[in-house]
Amino acid sequence: MSTEASSQRIYIPTLDELGELEQVYSVTAPERWRDYNDHVNVLGHYEFLMHTLHYGLMSMGITPDYIQTHGRSTFTLEQHVTFAHEIQIGAKLGGYVRLVDRNAKLLRGVAIAANLTTGEVASMAEFADIHIDMSTRRSTAWNDELGDKLDQRLAHDRQLSWLAPDSGSLKLR
Q1: Do residues 87 and 39 make contact, with C-beta atoms less than 8 angstroms apart?
Q2: Which of 46, 100, 125, 156 makes a 20 to 30 Å CA pair with 77?
């Protein structure tokens, strides 16, 4: 049995490529994220990525008003996090979301943490979210209006000049 690492690598976009997307979240890495290695800890990366995902979904129409009005929301089913570069405390970060795929109930994409101070992508969280009827806590199809918004965004993101980061671990079923 081989102990060699897989030759498949996840595509990591450049900051110029990320400029084709809207920045949906930004923050300066706070002191509370410092770990014993004197950089941002895993929880700091993850907190930033989850805020990025939250604001990205809001920009696509999954807002508190949508949840209250329609009684629908999204739950996360799976995630795959990739760490590409470390982040130092005090670095300026920008968050981006790219959609990859959707079906009647599921949405797949990637939240990306860009270190604007160094010009590097620091980490990425591939996600699979499911649309939920909050009264039954069961999956349900996207309503037409939200489905149309997601389709428009997906069409935009599929036309970007760069590959979507894809570990191969998340697929819509």
Answers
A1: yes
A2: 156
